[in-house]
Amino acid sequence: MPSSYSFDVVSEFDQQELVNAIDQLRREVDQRYDLKDSKTKIDIKEDELSIISLSDMTIESVKDILLQKATKRNLSLKIFDFQKIEIIGGNMVMQIVKLRKGLSQETSKKLSKLVRDNMKKVTASIQGESLRITGKNKDDLQSAISLIKTMEDELDIAIQFQNYR
């Protein structure tokens, strides 16, 4: 039996599910009557999306569809960071959507302090873009997970728990 147990607190999303949601979004934009002639382009990169279209209203419609598709694919809506809509040349507008991934140092410190202050039998250590919680008892780790889940609504990121061992 191991002398201690641990798990990692991370903020990630399934890249393939996001690609599938974007593909569905593109198909719907191409087929919908009100969006068909809007010259809407959706490009996906490693850490951001760009939506280019003719008007702010069209971008808002595309944004709503994106959120619906992401929800159906079990992606947290907290991964999307919508930037301000910008005017680009040729009567076109663009919106950049940054994709949030990984815990920031500030968030890691906040969660670490929360665990340290409320749970004396577990330790929290920051490991790059994740937080490792270690304890001698699995019940204490379950309590730490519950404590962090109560804090999740206040955070602007999606939290997952990995490597529970």
The DSSP helix count reads 4
Bin the strand percentage. Answer: 25-35%
Structural class: alpha+beta
Number of strands: 9
Order of helices and strands: EHEEHEEEHEEHE
In helices, the fraction of residues equals 25-40%
As residue ranges, the low-confidence spans are none
Taking the alpha carbons of the first and last residues, their distance comes to 11 Å
Mean pLDDT: 88
What does this structure look like?
This protein is an alpha+beta fold. Helices cover 38% and strands 27% of the residues. The protein has 4 helices and 9 strands. Strands 2, 3, 4, 5 and 6 form a 5-stranded antiparallel beta sheet that branches. Strands 7-8-1-9 form a 4-stranded antiparallel beta sheet, covered by helices on one side. The radius of gyration is 20 Å and the shape is elongated. The protein starts with a strand and ends with a strand. The relative contact order is 0.21.
Give the gist of this structure.
The protein is built from 4 helices and 9 strands, in the order E-H-E-E-H-E-E-E-H-E-E-H-E. The chain is α+β, with helices and mostly antiparallel strands and 165 residues long. The strands form 2 sheets. Strands 2, 3, 4, 5 and 6 form a 5-stranded antiparallel sheet that branches. The protein has a 4-stranded antiparallel sheet with strand order 7-8-1-9, with helices on one face.
